[in-house]
Amino acid sequence: MPETINDHLYDHPRYYELVFGSDWKAELKFLKQCFDKHADRPVKRLFEPACGTGRLLIRFAKEGYDVGGNDLNPKAVDYCNARFERWGFKPAAVVGDMSDFRLRRKVDAAFNTINSFRHLSSEKQARSHLECISAALAKGGLYILGLHLTPTQGERIEEESWSARRGNLAVVSRMWSKGLDLKRRTEDLGMTFDVYTPTRQFRIEDEMMYRTYTARQMRQLLENVSSLELVETYDFAYDINDPIRIQPETEDVIFVLRKR
After folding, report:
1. Cα 190 versus chain centre, distance
2. Model pTM greater than 0.85?
3. How confident is the model over 126-147, as pLDDT tens digits?
4. Mean pLDDT, the chain, as a whole number?
5. How far apart are CA 109 and CA 257, in angstroms?
6. Cα(121)–Cα(211) distance, rounded to whole angstroms?
7. Domains in the chain, start-ordered, CATH in brackets?
8. Which of 128, 174, 181, 188 is deepest in the core (most CB within 10 A)?
9. Sign of dihedral through CA atoms 40, 104, 223, 129?
């Protein structure tokens, strides 16, 4: 049997980057299309709350954008900044809380596309996050926020898996719902990385708690931050020409918000 390590997945940025960084081209293209279509100002300065390894920030930096981000995990921030330095850029990320931060200069757009928002465990934290984002955005700037909603009709997706390989390193990731409490608005998630190298095979196991949002609950939250206007919704197909209308069975949603 392969060795099992109980540890935080975010403390292993190399493996996390390999699994979740593989779709960066589609995300990057979509974000740039959103800037062109929905922003009321030119977009050159970007910020990513909960930026992790900076998988998108580094690509934007290479294209000439002025970028920055924050994340609570020091190992992810170190990984991100080391990569920036390898490419000749100044460090772009700082250790910080996505629900309690202030930027010295306003940005033209911010983005958070892969469910990190749901780590915020209370309505107070979620609203504080949106208010921090609003304060950081220049007028006409965008916040592009992606997350999984809890559907109120139909069957929800309870398990997902991804795999990726780079050279002699391969990682297979699995995430599954261990329990859903709609009254407390919590979802207990299990997650594993099965890591394969030429000399070793092992599994990293983690558990995390997400806050749940139905479409109505998310709409109410956004309405409470009146400085951000909802201008469009998409899904994780990242098709700028195919916006969606949220239905009771909808799960994957990208909200495009604009600073009034």
Report:
1. 18
2. yes
3. 999 999 999 999 999 999 999 9
4. 96
5. 10
6. 6
7. 3-7+152-211 (2.20.25), 10-151+214-259 (3.40.50.150)
8. 128
9. positive
